Amino acid sequence: MRSSWFNKLSLIFGHRIRHNWFLLCLISIVALVVIIGSSSSSLREFDSIGPPRFPNVYTNYRKLKEQAVVDYFDLRFLASGSNPRQKELSLCGKEKENYVPCYNLTANLKAGFKDGEEFDRHCELFRNEDRCLVRPPKEYKIPLRWPAGRDVIWSGNVKITKDDFLSSGSMTKRMMLLEENQIAFHNDDGLIFDGVKDYARQLAESIGLGSDSDFLQAGVQTVLDIGCGFGSFGAHLVSLKLMPICIAAYEVTGSQVQLALERGLPAMLGNFSSRQLPYPSLSFDMVHCAQCGIDWDGKDGMFIIEVDRLLKPGGYFVLTSPATKPQGSLLATKKGNMLTPVEDFTQRICWSLLDQQDDTLIWQKTADAHCYEARKQGLPLCQDEHESQSYYRPLVKCISGAHSKRWAPIRNRSNGVQYGEFYEEREYWKSALRNYWSLLTPLIFSDHPKRPGDEDPLPPYNMVRNVMDMNAFYGGFNAALLDGKKSAWVMNVVPIGSPNTLPLILDQGFAGVLHDWCEPFPTYPRTYDMLHGSGLLSLLSSEKCSMMDLFLEMDRILRPEAWVILSDNVGAIEMARTHATQIRWEARVIDPQNGSDQRLLVCQKPFLRK
């Protein structure tokens, strides 16, 4: 369908506009860009490494030059006989408002998966259906700013009903409904039996610390929270400057992951009933499970072996489980001098039981790799082939990481990575982030006002909370956000097929994961405020996956009015802008004016309602 501007031209010149006329227009546009550039040659929108010469780079000059670039691309599409907006995709039906690909219990059962595998992620069974845009529910509202959004969320933004609350038992002890359309979370309400703060303090004392504020000093920074409930423990850890990552299995309603992300807390879908989690060995300082629903004595201890694989040397496994667990299980009470099955098994993998209070047990993984060789009996050490990228590989019954160069006790770890290439990247991203915020600030507060009402502080520190770096390299973008004191956390994604820098990212205390971008990301719709990708399109150009499917997936996981920043060569950006217009994003191409073929594409997802 042709644009109104094109229809006007057709009425004047006829339906077949001469090619020379387009050529003349193209020359005029290019000339306009040259004239503008020469008249303001001292202004540069992107500096190299040093601080920006002009803090506020978004000016009338930039708008005019940017519009010229947009018009240039539009004329190229028109000259080729196509219209960049003629194939806008339609909205999906109401049944897909909370659509999560790769989690289809019916299809998994038909395919023969059982014994818990039917609840796993099976993208091999996923088939692309009619392409459409996942729309928000009718009651959806833009989340509150951080940190208010941590404690109060809109009930219409998550798939959970009032009946779910009333029948939830202990859930209602930690949550309450306000005015029928909000859910409030109480920071100090009960997580199991005591308040969250008391619970964290007890954990700290059990491992020999004075208080939970000493976790960082003891080397505990990254915590894998399995079955995180509604994020109360994770929210408290965030206040202590720790990095908790919630993982939980896919749930149709009342999803723990969806609620945690809605609160601005790091989370993703994941379980290890049959396959490893997409993290390398020696990734976390602590693994926490509070009534997470895992049968730890199942599959001959394979689940505990996976926890051992994920724990760093000297790391802790915290297990809180109700006292009503039947005798004979892993958590059975000790009788006389006999060891329970769990105590026997953990000793065989060089764990020590540090403390047991009420229903909470705390083990510590050995910090001495020679412990495995000194055992009289125990599991074998994994071979090298098991130490490669752990991307949903089958669970293994061997000890991982014992020969790794990354074997370093958490209490003896140095505070930083001494890699020159990493620091060079970090300085680059500090500069790039300043420019990003200079571009986004006026867009948010003038061209695209994201919040009506009260004026917001500049730049918008608290409007972008959940960020994903789709091609994270060494995590430099994450580091720049922290250095810039932005109130954001980053899911650092290392694409499969690129150098595996995830261990380095995790060792810095950041959240991260391996992912194949030919597949959907394991999260719910509308869970991120910003997606960032530098070089991602070029990286994926050799893959046998659809770029349109990638953009549809990006649209699915973006919140309404959220942002996308893509940096790549001009050809990749031109293609990306085509896809962006098809999924109804507002897209702007930015020329960094540094003599390279690199371009920046800044997009905003609109708030679409049917």
UniProtKB/TrEMBL annotation:
Do you know which Pfam families this protein is assigned to? Methyltransf_29 (PF03141)
Family matches, as CDD domains: AdoMet_MTases
Subcellular localization is given as:
Endomembrane system; Membrane
EC nos: 2.1.1.-
**InterPro entries reported for this sequence:** Put_SAM_MeTrfase, SAM-dependent_MTases_sf
Question: Does this UniProt record's set of keywords contain Transmembrane?
Answer: yes
List the Gene Ontology MF annotations in alphabetical order: methyltransferase activity
Q: Which domain of life is it from?
A: Eukaryota
Record bears the keyword Glycosyltransferase: no
Q: Give UniProt keywords alphabetically.
A: Glycoprotein, Membrane, Methyltransferase, Signal-anchor, Transferase, Transmembrane, Transmembrane helix
Q: Report the transmembrane regions from the record.
A: 21-39
Topology versus the membrane, per the UniProt entry?
A: Single-pass membrane protein; Single-pass type II membrane protein
Q: What class of enzyme is it?
A: transferase
* Any GO CC annotation of this UniProt entry: endomembrane system
One biological process term from GO is: methylation
The UniProt entry's sequence similarity note says: Belongs to the methyltransferase superfamily.
Task: Identify this protein by name.
Answer: Methyltransferase
Q: Which organism is it from?
A: Chenopodium quinoa (Quinoa)
